[in-house]
């Protein structure tokens, strides 16, 4: 075997290390000379004594981070590079996002992926491929979309409550008092799994009178729009369940065990689509169950942009705040439902007159259908359902429901109705389904409950974005309720499954008064037990005083802005909605 000889290892009896050259038996070599010395303190971060791989790590795409302080000596061959290495990475970008002149033609310079930053060249001299420009724009759009989503989620989750712009929108619809006892909370995720089929309902009674629909409104276009009229002398009624004399009479006759209205049932049926808070009062009297709304409840108004990702202004005095828009939407909806009728005195009357109107009082065109559904062998449900008009074609009468969508500012929706309704009506409807999913679903549910043959939707817009008193009707479109429900993915079996589950839950409660409250921040509904005298002194919140309202500019006949003075009587009338 080939071996090697190990030299003698000197022994130092006085301590560590080799023995002293002056006293020991081993002579040490001379100390090296001309070696640079780099002083350092204990707080300095020590790196490599010499970085021989500096030139290798400078290749484009290499993941090594360059830091001149990582090595005491640089053997890269270029002393000036060490001072530029730190600035190079901060200035280098694979895609140049600065403004530059665009090159056209076939001889356009191509981007070299091995190009490195040179401080002697201007960045604007670097051309960019068209596909990279497209990708850069896509990335910027994704960043902006992600920013909006983060803002929306913060507003929805309440994690940044101090900076939420729509904090007033997401307040609870009713003040939860300390003495209330919470019995249960139901997440909306459980509602999506419910399903229940009910047989066809039967009409117990029809009250009121209907005027005929004016079919000339079907031919309205944005170019031939019509001004929205104001109906000051017609009264609208929003009577709750227990205050309805017909329902009281039916309850005394034991016609059913559960009583409600179409507005309350549609709120329950479309609860998973709701964002704003709402509440429904439940009263258990004997073996009967009554679903009521409070005086001044949000159910009397119409939500606007409830499911939109863009938050509405939080200032209540702003004409585009959630509360101001809900009042404006209710005002538009009521006036639209009366303007599209033939007002020649010809009416379709039913068995009984309007149960809420005094004798000789002028009321809006409406018919109340008191209908009964069988939920099981022991439970029947009676609901008061509304239809707003009737149309006669080939001696065949059809019931209609009339509702209006309103445009207040195209900057919020991102689409201008006057430009898109004629050419891209489907896009306008898709935008409304995105921003007002709950409102449209509730209108559809009410049309299905009343068995209306057609639901008419009017597109009503402001004359001027800052004028919330004057409006024009741009288009009126008709839909069959069942077809429209399928289009918006509204499942009737799921709707009745939600109602059946709520009824079964409330039937297990003892006699007393309860309230269902949609949580303002979470997709769930809570059940509270409340005192018997709760909500008896609640009234609708008064509109803003006239001197505190934002007064929009008036417009003349040509549509231009005129003076800013408005008729005080008309302004006051326009800002109030009959409860």
Task: Give a written overview of the molecule.
The chain has 14 helices and 15 strands. It has a ten-stranded mixed beta sheet. It is of the alpha+beta class and 579 residues long. Strand 14 (512-518) and strand 15 form a beta hairpin. The termini are far apart. The protein is elongated. The relative contact order is 0.13. It folds into two domains: 54-91, no CATH class; 181-574, no CATH class. Residues 56-65, 72-88, 99-127, 156-169 and 539-579 have low confidence and may be disordered.
Primary descriptors:
579 residues; 19% strand; 2 domains; 5-stranded mixed sheet; alpha+beta
* Strand and helix order: HHHEHEEHEHEEHEEEEEHHHHEEHHEEH
Output the strand order for the largest sheet: 1-15-14-5-6-4-9-8-2-7
Largest sheet: 10 strands, mixed
By DSSP, the count of extended strands is: 15
Give the low-confidence spans: 56-65, 72-88, 99-127, 156-169, 539-579
The Rg value, from CA coordinates, equals 37 Å
N-to-C span: 111 Å
Q: DSSP helix count? A: 14
Look at the structure and give the mean pLDDT.
77
- Approximate helicity band: 25-40%
Q: What overall geometry do the principal axes of the alpha carbons give?
A: elongated
What's the domain count? 2
Strand content: 15-25%
Q: Would you tell me the structural class of the helices and strands? A: alpha+beta
């Amino acid at each position: 075997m080939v071996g090697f000889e190990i030299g003698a290892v000197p022994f130092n009896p006085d301590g560590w290390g080799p023995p002293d050259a002056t006293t020991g038996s081993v002579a040490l070599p001379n100390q090296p000379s001309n070696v640079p010395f780099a002083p350092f303190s204990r707080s300095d971060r020590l790196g490599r004594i010499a970085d021989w791989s500096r030139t290798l790590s400078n290749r484009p795409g290499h993941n090594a981070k360059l830091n001149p302080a990582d090595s005491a000596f640089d053997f890269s061959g270029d002393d000036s590079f060490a001072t530029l290495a730190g600035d190079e990475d901060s200035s280098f970008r694979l895609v140049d996002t600065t403004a530059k002149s665009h090159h056209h033609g076939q001889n356009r310079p191509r981007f070299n992926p091995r190009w490195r930053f040179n401080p002697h060249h201007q960045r604007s001299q670097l051309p960019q491929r068209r596909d990279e420009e497209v990708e850069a724009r896509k990335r910027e759009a994704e960043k902006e979309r992600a920013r909006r989503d983060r803002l929306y989620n913060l507003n929805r989750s309440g994690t940044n409550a101090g900076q939420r712009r729509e904090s007033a929108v997401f307040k609870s619809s009713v003040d939860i008092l300390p003495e209330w006892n919470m019995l249960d909370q139901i997440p909306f995720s459980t509602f999506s799994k419910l399903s229940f089929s009910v047989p066809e309902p039967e009409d117990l009674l029809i009250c009121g009178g209907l005027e005929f629909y004016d079919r000339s409104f079907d031919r309205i276009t944005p170019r031939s729009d019509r001004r929205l009229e104001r109906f000051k002398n017609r009264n609208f009624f929003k009577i709750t369940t227990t205050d309805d004399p017909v329902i009281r009479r039916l309850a005394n006759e034991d016609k059913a065990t559960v009583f409600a209205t179409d507005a309350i049932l549609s709120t329950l049926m479309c609860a998973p689509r709701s964002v704003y808070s709402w509440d429904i009062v439940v009263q258990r009297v004997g073996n009967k169950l009554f679903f009521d709304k409070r005086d001044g409840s949000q159910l009397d108004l119409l939500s606007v942009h409830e499911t939109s990702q863009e938050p509405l202004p939080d200032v209540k005095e702003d004409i585009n705040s959630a509360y101001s828009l809900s009042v404006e939407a209710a005002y538009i909806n009521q006036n639209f439902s009366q303007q599209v009728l033939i007002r020649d005195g010809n009416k379709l009357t039913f068995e009984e007159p309007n149960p809420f109107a005094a004798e000789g009082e002028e009321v809006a065109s409406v018919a109340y259908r008191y209908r009964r559904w069988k939920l099981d062998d022991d439970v029947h449900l009676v609901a008061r359902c509304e239809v707003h008009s009737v149309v006669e074609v080939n001696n065949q009468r059809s019931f209609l429901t009339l509702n209006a969508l309103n445009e207040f500012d195209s900057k919020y929706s991102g689409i201008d109705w006057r430009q898109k309704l004629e050419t891209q009506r489907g896009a306008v409807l898709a935008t409304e389904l995105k921003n007002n999913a709950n409102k449209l679903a509730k209108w559809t549910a009410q049309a299905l409950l009343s068995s209306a043959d057609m639901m008419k939707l009017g597109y009503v817009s402001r004359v001027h974005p800052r004028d919330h008193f004057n409006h024009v009707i741009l288009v009126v479109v008709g839909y069959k309720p069942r077809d429209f429900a399928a289009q918006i993915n509204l499942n009737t079996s799921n709707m009745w499954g939600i109602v059946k589950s709520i009824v079964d839950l409330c039937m297990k409660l003892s006699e007393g008064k309860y309230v269902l409250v949609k949580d303002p921040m979470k997709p769930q509904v809570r059940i509270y037990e409340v005192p018997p005298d709760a909500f008896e002194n609640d009234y609708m919140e008064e509109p803003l005083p006239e001197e505190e309202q934002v007064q929009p500019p008036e417009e003349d006949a040509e549509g231009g802005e005129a003076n800013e003075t408005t008729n005080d009587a008309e302004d006051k009338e326009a800002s109030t909605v009959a409860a």
